[in-house]
Write a structure and sequence with these properties.
Blueprint lengths: L15 E5 L2 E4 L4 E4 L2 H4 L8 H13 L10 H13 L4 E5 L2 H18 L7 E5 L8 H7 L2 H4 L9 E4 L4 H7 L4 E6 L15 H12 L2 E5 L14 H4 L5 E4 L10 E5 L20 H14 L4 H22 L4 E7 L2 E6 L3 H10 L2 E2 L1 E3 L3 E4 L7 H30 L1
Parallel strand pairs: 3-13, 5-6, 5-7, 7-8, 8-9
Antiparallel strand pairs: 1-2, 2-3, 4-10, 9-10, 11-12, 12-15, 14-15
Bound molecules: pyridoxal-5'-phosphate.
C-alpha cells in the first residue's frame, strides 16, 4: 500500500525533535551533528535566536497579502540583494526550481523584446541540476529524471561541464543564453577548471548571449563569498538563488540586470506566495547576518580548515576516500566505496551528510559551524571510515577462506 506521504524519496529512517545551531536531536534521543545542513538550506543552523525573533515578530503582524499590494519587507530585501550584487531587480518565488524557471523566462524574453525571438535556445551543462519542474529538468537534461515524464521542454543544448570548446561549438544563431552552476552541487561538488566562468562571460559578451548563473546552492555565503561568482571576478546577467536565503524558510529569487529584465513587465510573470511578508522578513534577517563584518571571512577560514582536515582524512583512509572537492562550506568526498555506504556509516556516528553525483558524499554544514564542530565532525568521520575499513577487511578475509 502506498504511504500517505508520496514515496518519491529514499529516506533514512530517522526523524528529529529539535535543533540548536549545528546540532539536531533525533527522536531516537541521540544528538546529530548536522553537516547535511538541510541540503545547504540551514545556513544559520537551527533555531537561530535572531531568525526565531524575526519570524515570531512578523508572524504576529502579517504573513501574506499577495502581490496585488506593495510588500515593504520584499522591497527591503530586494534592495539589499541589489546593493550586494550585480543585479538591478529581483523577482521572489518559493524555491530554487522556480527561481530557475524565472531565469529561463527572463533570458528568452530578453531576446524576444530585442527583436530576436529565435534566440530561445540555451546552452547548459551535463551533470547540472536546476530543479524538478519540467523546464528545469529539461535545462539539466539528466535522462534519469526526465524518463517517463513525456516530451521534455525544447530548447536546451548540453555540453560537458568545464569544456569551453564544446560551448563554442554548440553556439548557433538561435542560442540566447548559457546557464551554469559556478560549482555543480548535486552533480558531485564539481569545481570547474579555473578561468572557466570568466571565459564564459567573455564568450557571452562576444556573442550577445546572457550569462545565467544558478547559485541556488552556492549563493548566500556558502563558498565564503556572498555569491560564488565573486571568486571568478565576473558578473552574470541573470541569477537564481534560493536554498540558504531563507535559512530554512522556503524562498527563492531571480536576480537580473535592468537590461536583461527589459521584457519582464507587469503581467509577464508571477507567483501567489512569492515574496510574502513572512518569507521576506526572515530572509532579510538572514542576509543581514551573513553580511555582518567578518561573517564571510569566518566561513572562508572554516572552509579552508575543514578542507585541510578532510585531505588528511583522505590520506588516512585511502580505501574509503578518493578525493576532496569544493570551496568554502560546500565540500565533497569522492568515495571509493559506494557513497551512500559512507553516508550511512557517518549517520551511525551521528554525523549527517548527503550524497551527490560522481559517488560523492556532500558536506554542507551551517555557515555558523565552529572549528570545534569541524573537529568533532572529523572524529565522527574517522570512526565511520574505520568501521568501513573493518567491514572491507572482513570481506577480504571471507573471500580468502
Ligand atoms: C537545489 C537546487 C535547485 C532546486 O531547488 P529547489 O528548491 O529544490 O527547487 C536548483 N539549482 C541548484 C543548483 C540546486 O542546488
Amino acid at each position: 500500500m502506498i504511504a500517505p506521504l508520496m514515496p518519491t524519496y529514499a529516506r533514512a529512517d530517522l526523524a528529529f525533535e529539535r535543533g540548536e545551531g549545528v546540532w539536531l536531536t533525533g527522536t531516537d534521543g541521540r544528538r546529530y551533528l548536522d553537516f547535511a545542513g538541510g541540503v545547504a538550506v540551514s545556513s544559520l543552523g537551527h533555531a537561530h535566536p535572531r531568525l526565531v525573533a524575526a519570524i515570531t515578530e512578523q508572524a504576529g503582524k502579517v504573513w501574506h497579502v499577495s502581490n496585488l499590494f506593495r510588500i515593504p519587507e520584499a522591497e527591503r530585501l530586494a534592495k539589499m540583494l541589489v546593493d550586494v550584487s550585480f543585479a538591478d531587480t529581483v523577482f521572489f518565488c518559493n524555491s530554487g526550481a522556480e527561481a530557475m524557471e524565472c531565469a529561463i523566462k527572463v533570458a528568452r524574453k530578453y531576446h524576444a523584446v530585442n527583436g530576436h525571438p529565435e534566440k530561445s535556445r540555451i546552452i547548459a551543462f551535463e551533470g547540472s541540476f536546476h530543479g524538478r519542474t519540467l523546464a528545469t529538468l529539461a535545462a539539466a537534461g539528466a535522462k534519469k529524471y526526465l524518463d517517463g515524464f513525456g516530451e521534455p521542454l525544447a530548447g536546451f543544448d548540453h555540453v560537458p561541464y568545464g569544456d569551453l570548446d564544446a560551448v563554442k561549438k554548440a553556439i548557433t544563431p538561435e542560442t540566447g543564453a548559457i546557464v551554469v552552476e559556478p560549482i555543480q552541487g548535486e552533480g558531485g561538488v564539481r569545481v570547474p577548471p579555473s578561468g572557466f566562468l570568466r571565459a564564459l562571460r567573455e564568450l557571452c559578451n562576444e556573442k550577445g548571449l546572457l550569462l545565467v548563473l544558478d547559485e541556488v546552492q552556492t549563493g548566500l555565503g556558502r563558498t565564503g563569498k556572498f555569491f560564488a561568482y565573486e571568486w571568478a571576478g565576473i558578473e552574470p546577467d541573470v541569477m537564481a538563488i534560493a536554498k540558504g536565503l531563507g535559512g530554512g524558510f522556503p524562498i527563492g529569487a531571480c536576480l537580473a540586470t535592468e537590461a536583461a529584465a527589459k521584457g519582464m513587465t507587469a503581467g509577464t510573470h508571477g507567483s501567489t506566495f512569492g515574496g510574502n511578508p513572512l518569507a521576506t522578513a526572515v530572509a532579510g534577517t538572514v542576509v543581514n547576518i551573513v553580511l555582518e563584518k567578518g561573517f564571510l571571512d569566518r566561513v572562508a577560514k572554516t572552509g579552508l580548515l575543514f578542507k585541510q582536515r578532510l585531505a588528511e582524512m583522505k590520506d588516512r583512509h585511502p580505501a574509503v576516500i578518493a578525493e576532496v572537492r569544493g570551496e568554502g562550506l560546500l565540500l565533497g568526498l569522492r568515495a571509493v566505496v559506494p557513497n551512500m555506504d559512507l553516508v550511512a556509516a557517518c549517520r551511525e556516528e551521528c554525523l549527517l551528510t548527503a550524497g551527490a553525483g560522481e559517488n560523492v558524499v556532500r558536506l554542507m554544514p551551517p555557515l555558523v559551524t565552529s572549528d570545534a564542530e569541524v573537529a568533532e565532525a572529523m572524529n565522527k568521520l574517522d570512526r565511520a571510515c574505520q568501521k568501513i575499513e573493518a567491514t572491507l577487511a572482513a570481506h577480504t578475509r571471507g573471500a580468502a577462506e
